[in-house]
Amino acid sequence: MSITVVGSVAYDTIETPAGRRERCLGGAATYFALAASFFAEVRVIAVVGDDFGPEQEAVFAARNIDTRGIEHAPGQCFLWEGSYLDNINEAKTHLTELNVFACFEPKIPDVYRDSDFLFLANIDPVLQRRVRESMPNVKLVAGDTMNYWIKDHRTPLLEVLKGLDVLLINDTETRMIAGNNNLVQAARAVMALGPRFLVVKHGEYGATLFHNALPKGKGAELRAPALPLEQVVDPTGAGDSFAGGFFGYLASQPELTVAAYRRAMFYGSVMGSFACERFGTERLQQLSRPEIDARFQVFRDLTHLD
Amino acid sequence: MSITVVGSVAYDTIETPAGRRERCLGGAATYFALAASFFAEVRVIAVVGDDFGPEQEAVFAARNIDTRGIEHAPGQCFLWEGSYLDNINEAKTHLTELNVFACFEPKIPDVYRDSDFLFLANIDPVLQRRVRESMPNVKLVAGDTMNYWIKDHRTPLLEVLKGLDVLLINDTETRMIAGNNNLVQAARAVMALGPRFLVVKHGEYGATLFHNALPKGKGAELRAPALPLEQVVDPTGAGDSFAGGFFGYLASQPELTVAAYRRAMFYGSVMGSFACERFGTERLQQLSRPEIDARFQVFRDLTHLD
């Protein structure tokens, strides 16, 4: 099965207690695509500037990721600068330059139109909706969003939610959308807006899968932990890598059973854990499928009683 | 197997979004003893005032908890008043009156001396150590502490840690003891001070079991989730109930294998989840073993892939 992802391809300048890196290749679509590429065929829709060249192109090519939907525009790529010096779990943003991303108008190559799966990474919900509507035949649509859109762009965001099968967001975002501090109640309220499945990401504590077919009294479908890591080098992109592992694994399955969603949670956690081990996408670029399968076993050992 | 627990028996006045209760029977030793009593014989060492009468005594008696080590002193019981109005996961303390607890000198009844298990709930480490040394023949010792003792009473606390098999504390306390923000590194540092096992409680996100025999590279032994609850009525005592379920389950086991510790984490989470469902110890007082076993299955479903 093939996945089309729309989102940012960017440069990140990152400082963590482990060091500093200037202009790592990043962006939600990049992390998502690299992580998902271990499970499925991935196609990217994004916009980049003149500072995206053959070296960056090669990162995608090495994982057989289709970049024909990456538009090249005059100017510079989206640039983010942030640090995690006080708290490794929370980025402090120092600089955001939208650059070519400010005028992003996603264009869907005809060769992408037979994609079975669509992932709408965190971008303006107006654009998310436009892409969703341009690909009416996809089998499964998942998406992400953030506090900024929830707070100030609620109307278009609600339109996007209607068209999603799966929403992946964090605790705070879930509570914000629902206006309810109890996570279980908030999750039900969010699913009532559209998505059948909701994945709530808890950062270093893992993630919870909610399902709208759960009986009253059963709070959640599955809780998957994050891996306690001896060293978190750089948490940037861990959430997008989780989404890539989760959605990529689903795209690799013959049937979208609840059991498949449950296993997908573990593959999401696996890919998120790798992302944190080195700066930027370094670890995802050097990963192998046997390493992924071995880490899946580590997660199983960490959670299963027998 | 029998467990002796030393700690506070107190009154709590609690306000949460679900309501307010004046002077609930509480205290770490109370929650611990009630939770552990479903698995093992429990004996309590504590001090109470004139306001602890037959009605309170009956709460312990109903669960066959031995209260011969509860000393009656002139004055009032320890009183705590707090609320969880802004954040259900974090208590705001409004009032602490130590009362008879200020002069607590734990006295161990002779009939308690054959206890196999000892739990040192969160009290002055000087007292924890004294109790530990008075019971040299116990098979397993576990304990709890808090930021106040870590910050200002480090020397006696380090003495206590030397004598513990298992320490149960939260994330912040683990990082504080170790002076290290990485949880895995901090856990190793804490275990180097004495305890072979460390249980780090993450509140609504569950708890992680660390073991000092873990190979380098394996971060943790087990992560157990907390139950996503539709309504958290009152989180007071959830951590002590976790400890009671965890330690009580261990005391019920013929052998203290690592597998037993892993299952104990789930029983801890089970008891913690019940504690939150009503005010104070109300839910623990009305609980049955079949309900505990059913909830254990809920936790298994929530975490296991097959």
Summary, kept brief:
2 copies of one chain form a homodimer. Chain A is an alpha/beta fold.
What this model shows, in words?
2 copies of one chain form a homodimer. The first copy, chain A, has helices at residues 28-36, 54-62, 125-134, 147-152, 154-162, 171-178, 183-191, 238-251, 258-275, 282-285, 289-303, and strands at 2-6, 10-16, 19-26, 41-48, 66-72, 78-83, 92-97, 117-120, 140-144, 166-170, 197-201, 207-211, 222-224. By secondary structure, chain A is an alpha/beta fold. Chain A has one domain (2-303): Ribokinase (UDP-N-acetylmuramoyl-L-alanine:D-glutamate ligase, 3-Layer(aba) Sandwich), CATH 3.40.1190.20. In chain A, the strands form 2 sheets. The first copy, chain A, has a 9-stranded mixed sheet with strand order 5-4-1-8-9-10-11-12-13, sandwiched between helices. In chain A, strands 3-2-6-7 form a 4-stranded mixed sheet. In chain A, helix 3 runs parallel beside helix 5 (154-162). The longest helix of chain A is centred in the C-terminal third of the chain and has 18 residues, at 258-275. The first copy, chain A, is globular and about 55 Å long. Chain A starts with a strand and ends with a helix. The model of chain A has no long low-confidence stretch (mean pLDDT 96). Chains A and B meet through helix 7, strand 13, helix 9 and helix 11 of A and helix 7, strand 13, helix 9 and helix 11 of B.
